[in-house]
């Protein structure tokens, strides 16, 4: 059965790029436009992977990860934080919130799939 | 697996166009004298988004240019550059270049000729702190002291230069 990924980003183009890459790699894709929207989309679903942006309106990535980590269905789901921040403190904050890893923008589809392969291994 | 992102750029260009319009409106508000931190913050965020997204869609020159814009806006946010006529005019000029750059990327034509020059000015724009008479007096006093204590003034000067460079 195909694995399901949830991608959370307020940018339409980045969601499209992530979705396209993941579908090409055989994933089923669910999209959320911010943390709050993503939590609603997760209602009653199990996903195999979550990729989330950091800066988003309504609910940012860190708040979303913390909320996802207290839900039984997503407690151990690999979560990748997508960010242009290369500052170590942002990575630390993502890790503390419960992120499994991060991808620094800009990234190439191949790099993205490589990181995903690593966290799903 | 080789994935071609070119067909997906259309959405990026649409989004980038919206960001450019919002940034231009924000800069015009700043130019009108309404310098509020939230506005500068929003400008930094938009430039930051454009940098990351342009790079992700393989538009290296646009990513580099918006990085320089983000840098200047970030220095404005932290008070290292004054949001005065000079810096705001430079940012408005940069917005024109950015719009032309995005347009050339969309049409797959040559980038505008002034990209590198404006990027260079964005990167080097600094607010020169006006000399503070009190600190100049203090420096002269220190100078006298180091002479009395037999220190090497050239070395002190070099360290001060390094400190100033680090502070900039």
Quick take:
The complex is a heterodimer of chains A (121) and B (168). With 121 residues, chain A is α/β, with parallel strands linked by helices.
CATH class of chain A reads Alpha Beta
Order of helices and strands of chain B: HHHHHHH
Name the CATH superfamily assignment of chain A: Response regulator
The most extensive interface between chains reads:
A-B, 18 and 21 residues
The total of helices of chain B stands at 7
Give the termini separation of chain A: 16 Å
- Radius of gyration of chain A, rounded? 13 Å
The SS-based structural class of chain B is mainly alpha
Broad shape of chain B: globular
Rg of chain B, rounded, reads: 21 Å
Mean pLDDT of chain A: 90
Q: Note the quaternary state here.
A: heterodimer
Low-confidence regions of chain B: none
Number of strands of chain B: 0
SSE topology sketch:
The complex is a heterodimer of chains A (121) and B (168).
Chain A: E1 4-8, H1 12-24, E2 28-32, H2 35-42, E3 49-53, H3 61-69, E4 79-83, H4 88-97, E5 101-104, H5 109-120
Parallel strand pairs in A: 1-2, 1-3, 3-4, 4-5
Helix pairs in contact in A: 2-3
Chain B: H1 9-31, H2 37-56, H3 60-77, H4 85-107, H5 115-124, H6 133-148, H7 153-167
Describe it.
The complex is a heterodimer of chains A (121) and B (168). Chain A has helices at residues 12-24, 35-42, 61-69, 88-97, 109-120, and strands at residues 4-8, 28-32, 49-53, 79-83, 101-104. Chain A is α/β, with parallel strands linked by helices and 121 residues long. Chain A has one domain (4-120): Response regulator (Rossmann fold, 3-Layer(aba) Sandwich). Chain A has a five-stranded parallel sheet, with helices on both faces. The radius of gyration of chain A is 13 Å and the shape is globular. By secondary structure, chain B is mainly alpha-helical. Chain B has two domains: 6-124, Up-down Bundle (Four Helix Bundle (Hemerythrin (Met), subunit A)); 133-167, no CATH class. Chain B is built from seven helices and no strands. In chain B, helix 1 packs antiparallel against helix 4, helix 3 runs antiparallel to helix 4 and helix 4 runs antiparallel to helix 5 (115-124). The mean pLDDT of chain B is 83. The interface between A and B is medium-sized, with 18 and 21 residues.
